[in-house]
Design a protein that fits this description.
Length: 566
């Protein structure tokens, strides 16, 4: 019993400490917002109580006016690693944030100094169970690269293989978990106080971000991703995936084969060495299209720094932290939409979006149909080599933003990655056209989609699902009716909590103001009569009334000031 009580008290202390840390973090966020001239946002989402009293009375200092996207990027950079990652992930969701924010958030970079070699030694020993000297024949003390989550060192195993060792930054998990809780708090406040943001589901965005960044924190997952890429590309000669050294890998340490090469973005060095840039661009595009249309498993960040050109002009992928997946069901639905576009069947295009479940209830379907038709007619009949894929993707995403269409996160990541691949390929080869390279992949996808065997399989699956529904629907209806009969059916309403709370607060303030007024009037009448005990030659009860009225009035004024609504 004592042990249970002790554990409970310990958990309570930890909980209180975390809550205190989160409040301090919210204080810091409000300070940064005020510093960049966005203090009004803190007021709108009811964080005005965290604004220093002096700034509430006199207002913040004047700041240099910059475009809002630039200000937002600077705020994220100042708030540190978690918020930088959050912005980077948001930059892959042009269906959720305006394009100018996407462009600005794409500039976010981790500018975190490396942690010490002593911490590296401690982390490796804790994770791998032995000191560096026993595990490696050589270990470079200077990091090869450094980021917010971890840093990379070059090393050599006892068996002679050259490797890169990725070590997670000590304590980063606790920092990120604390910041995720803060982001959830902010998202809920934004949803409650900024109704215009609700269609974009701020809490859902944070939930998606939390899932993504937690995956990145587990290096064993990244190791599995690398191994899957190895299996997918084992027959492709122009792609090289580094070997994973499992015995030197854990949740916080990842050891991969060292690949010697030039970063894909170093065009001058590729030119100097006489590499065939046209061939490299084509292989890059083909490798990505295979990942998408054949494997449904693709590199989510094909940045030129994450891909190397090796001596034989093959491409080496070196980062597997952010991975996108397109399941068979989503690929089939996308194939349906593509076939409908080819046939100019607008109704089926819209139906395809509805089946994916990404059109908001507030979307004007008729206007969406008209714009979709205009977009399709613009590209219909145009030779595929003349289609600018990046421009087409931009138009699709702009339409999604306009009609509040929620693109599935992996599909959105695919579009961003595809645009990145095309951009890099065009830097390598100015005449490169992604549509030409993509044509055989898309044709094969459509061909397989309309194959008789596939159609028969889908038909049987639909019949089976229809049979299951025929059995389960009556039971579900019966359960609902039972709840109605027993008065157990609960209907939830949303949006009234804040209204009721504010109504109560307003009523309380009016009541207090009336009480103060009554006390002042009563005290004034007593003062006029001059009756009762005296104090300093004045009626005692009159002075007492004025004092009480003054205190209550001060409380009322302070409450109104703290609310931010003067």
């Amino acid at each position: 019993m004592k042990k249970l009580l002790k554990n409970y008290q310990s958990d309570m202390r930890i909980g209180l400490l975390r809550r205190y840390e989160e409040i301090q973090r919210l204080h810091q966020i409000v300070d940064v917002l005020i510093k960049h001239g966005l203090g009004y946002l803190a007021k709108r989402i009811e964080l005005h109580s965290l604004i220093p009293f002096r700034k509430r009375i006199f207002g913040p200092k004047q700041v240099e006016v910059e475009p809002l996207p630039v200000t937002a990027r600077k705020i994220l950079e100042e708030l540190g690693p978690t918020f930088i990652k959050f912005g980077q992930i948001l930059s892959s969701r042009p269906d959720l944030i305006p394009r100018e924010y996407v462009v600005e958030f794409s500039k976010l970079l981790d500018r975190v100094p490396p942690f010490s070699y002593e911490e590296v030694e401690k982390q490796i020993e804790n994770e791998l169970g032995a000191p560096i000297s026993e595990l490696f024949d050589f270990f470079d003390k200077k990091p090869f690269a450094s980021a917010s989550i971890g840093q990379v060192h070059v090393a050599c195993l006892k068996t002679g293989e050259k490797v890169v060792v990725k070590i997670q930054r000590p304590g980063i998990e606790d920092i990120i978990e604390s910041d995720i809780n803060v982001l959830y708090t902010l998202a809920k406040l934004v949803e409650r106080h900024l109704p215009e943001t609700r269609p974009y589901d701020p809490t859902g965005i944070v939930r998606e971000f939390a899932k993504t960044i937690r995956k990145e924190l587990d290096y064993t997952r990244e190791a599995r991703n690398a191994e899957k890429f190895q299996r997918n590309f084992k027959e492709i000669e122009y792609i090289r995936i580094p070997k994973v050294y499992r015995e030197y890998t854990s949740r916080r340490v990842l050891t991969l084969e060292y690949l010697e090469g030039i970063k894909l973005g170093d065009i001058e060095e590729l030119e100097r060495r006489g590499y065939d840039r046209k061939r490299i661009a084509e292989n890059l595009a083909k490798s990505f299209l295979k990942q998408v249309y054949v494997d449904g498993f693709f590199q989510g960040d094909p940045h030129p720094a994450n891909i190397l050109v090796l001596e034989d002009e093959s491409l080496g992928f070196i980062d597997f932290g952010m991975i996108g997946r397109l399941d068979k069901d989503l690929m089939n639905k996308l194939a349906d939409i593509f076939i409908a576009v080819v046939r100019k069947d607008i109704d089926k295009v819209v139906k395809g979006y509805l089946e994916i479940g990404i059109i908001d209830v507030s979307t004007d379907i008729q206007d969406f149909k008209l714009d979709a038709q205009e977009l399709i007619e613009h590209y219909y009949g145009v030779p595929i080599k003349e289609i600018d894929t990046t421009a087409l993707m931009k138009e699709i995403m702009d339409m999604a933003m306009e009609y509040r269409i929620r693109i599935p996160s992996n599909f959105s990541l695919f579009i961003k990655s595809l645009a990145t691949v095309e951009s890099v390929a065009r830097q390598l080869d100015p005449e490169f056209n992604l549509s030409v390279v993509a044509e055989p992949f898309v044709k094969e996808m459509v061909k397989s989609r309309i194959h008789p065997k596939v159609i028969a399989s889908e038909f049987l699956k639909s019949v089976s699902e229809l049979g299951e529904s025929a059995i389960t629907i009556p039971k579900k209806v019966e359960r609902v009716l039972e709840k109605v009969e027993k008065d157990q059916l609960v209907l939830e309403h949303r949006g009234f909590d804040r209204f009721i709370s504010e109504l109560n607060a307003t009523g309380n303030r009016i009541s207090l103001a009336l009480i103060v007024s009554a006390i002042i009037v009563s005290s004034a009448l007593i003062m006029q009569t001059g009756k009762g005990p005296l104090f300093l030659g004045l009626p005692f009860f009159s002075l007492l009334g004025f004092t009480i009225a003054g205190i209550l009035g001060a409380i009322l004024v302070i409450t109104i000031v703290r609310s931010g609504r003067l």
